[in-house]
Design a protein that fits this description.
357 residues; alpha/beta; five-stranded parallel sheet; seven-stranded mixed sheet
Amino acid sequence: MTKHASITTSQLSLFSRRTCLRAAGLAASALLLPTLLTGCGEEKKTAAAPAAAAATPDLIPVGVVQLVEHEALDATVRGFIDALAERGWKDGERIRIDRQNAQGDQATLAAIGTRFVSGKSRLIFASSTPALQAMARATKTIPIVATAVTSFEAAKVVASDKAPGGNVTGVSNLGPIAAQLDLLIALTGDATKTTPIGVVFNPAEVNAEFQAARLREEAQKRGVKVLEAAAGSMNDVPQAITSMKGKVCGLWLPTDNVLASAAATVAKLARDAKLPVVASDSAMVRAGALASISVDYYELGRMTGALGADILEGKRTPAATPVAFQDARQPLINRSAAAAIGLAVPEAVAAKSSFID
């Protein structure tokens, strides 16, 4: 009995080592089990991720470009984006808006057009005539909607306003030029019968030249003489307006991106020269010019945004969508500008006008 029950020192040592190894194995298994379970869970989660991503559609790219930064063009962009959002096309949800500003540079406009095309934009919004022309050169297939464009026909981007026929449509910013001239005549007390009116504009802008031509026609009908001065850049504006001093009884200004960018300068120079200014853009009145009968640029943007939403939803095509126009009738008059040049606003004009200080 004693012989069979006895365990040698070497056997005890071997038994101890085997026991420790089994214990270590069990401990390792216990430690490994949560890791394995966790790993399985992570594999399931990772495998499910692509399916979840696939369930979210890609955002539709929409290009937005303006020629330069000033109040009127900024307002059109806000209106466009707001109108799209109200129709369910909100930036970051269904669409991805790529907003660009060319800072008045034609080469930059061309690069922006290339950017929108390579980025596969589904819709392009252009604010201003030069911006629209650049986008129309960049693509003949992507739908383009535009505003702050006086004449789509004169810009040579549509076959006609009533039947565009291509990939371009939008909303014109053409104001009531005849009514603007009549307002200037009323404010100057018929001084235009003996003294010319001054017209300052950038002849390189198609929209400005188009409006100046219309003004000449309306002035000729009324027997009013016109004296013109060119301002091809903001640096030319002071000289152009100063050259009118003592030669004209008032100034008429078209919607012109050079003048709009220099609105405060224009207003100050006109006040210094004691000249009443009737501008085609109400932003110039807020900057200090005397008066305007103008379209609402924010509303122009909203109208264009509604067209854009219709196109995104497949309800319209640019080719079959006529260029739209906004009706503008009420004069806006700056009281402080009138006081600065010593002008008493005639009662007949005041009765139908709105005022700002």
